[in-house]
């Protein structure tokens, strides 16, 4: 059994570690993990807005209900804002009520996942672009059929490409 004093010491140590640890260390992939598209931090900063950089490269999270993509239900495809890889179809998008664009299935060969232990006593599954490694959000097991999954994505990490309409 853990005493209150030991519990408090462990909590303080975790808080200090969380405050000083870099996102790069917290989200390190497999040793030697290499993506098809790699850029220097300076190149990413030139390519992305500050908000996109924070989410995609520093594993940040945008505020809930802040993305216009949350309520977008037009036909089309959601691409990675970092490298333009198609990630999700509008056909798998749904309103999860969480304030972030949510999908029940990604496109084939679009994403990668890894364990995320950045929250106190919580293990989540982080979702990233398989081509550039950009952080997209997390996947949870509380989604709708047929998969039962909820891919909860940061809208700022996505770019919506409307479906081309045929003109007669």
Q: How would you describe the overall organization of this protein?
A:
The chain has helices at 4-20, 23-26, 41-47, 50-58; strands at residues 76-80, 86-89, 93-94, 102-103, 111-119, 122-129, 135-140, 150-153, 158-162. By secondary structure, it is of the alpha+beta class. Strands 3-4-8-7-6-5 form a 6-stranded antiparallel β-sheet. A 3-stranded antiparallel β-sheet has the order 2-1-9, with no helix packed on it. Mean pLDDT is 83; it is low at 6-31.
Topology record:
Blueprint: H1 4-20, H2 23-26, H3 41-47, H4 50-58, E1 76-80, E2 86-89, E3 93-94, E4 102-103, E5 111-119, E6 122-129, E7 135-140, E8 150-153, E9 158-162
Antiparallel strand pairs: 1-2, 1-9, 3-4, 4-8, 5-6, 6-7, 7-8
Number of domains: 1
CATH architecture: Beta Complex
| Average pLDDT rating | 83
The CATH superfamily is known as Peptide methionine sulfoxide reductase
- Helicity level: 10-25%
Which CATH first-tier class would you pick? Mainly Beta
The succession of helices and strands, N to C, reads HHHHEEEEEEEEE
Backbone structural class = alpha+beta
Largest sheet: 6 strands, antiparallel
Low-confidence segments, ≥5 residues, pLDDT <50? 6-31
CATH fold description: Metal Binding Protein, Guanine Nucleotide Exchange Factor, Chain A
Shape annotation: globular
List how many beta strands DSSP finds.
9
What percentage of amino acids are in beta strands? Answer: 25-35%
How large is the radius of gyration? 18 Å
The number of helical segments is: 4
Strand order of the largest sheet: 3-4-8-7-6-5
Distance between the termini: 74 Å
């Amino acid at each position: 059994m853990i005493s209150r004093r030991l519990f408090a010491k462990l909590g303080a140590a975790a808080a200090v570690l969380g405050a000083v640890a870099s996102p790069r260390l917290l989200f390190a992939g497999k040793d030697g993990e290499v993506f098809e598209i790699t850029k220097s931090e300076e190149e990413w900063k030139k390519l992305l807005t500050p908000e996109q950089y924070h989410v995609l490269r520093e594993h940040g999270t945008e505020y809930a209900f802040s993305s216009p993509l949350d309520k977008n239900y037009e036909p089309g495809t959601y691409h990675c804002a970092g490298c333009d890889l198609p990630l999700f179809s509008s056909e798998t998008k749904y309103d999860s009520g969480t304030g972030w664009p949510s999908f029940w299935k990604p496109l084939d060969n679009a994403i990668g996942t890894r364990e995320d232990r950045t929250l106190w006593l919580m293990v989540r599954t982080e979702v990233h672009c398989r081509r550039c490694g950009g952080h997209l959000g997390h996947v949870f097991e509380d989604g709708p059929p047929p998969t039962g999954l909820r891919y909860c994505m940061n809208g700022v990490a996505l770019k919506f490409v409307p479906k081309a309409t045929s003109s007669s």
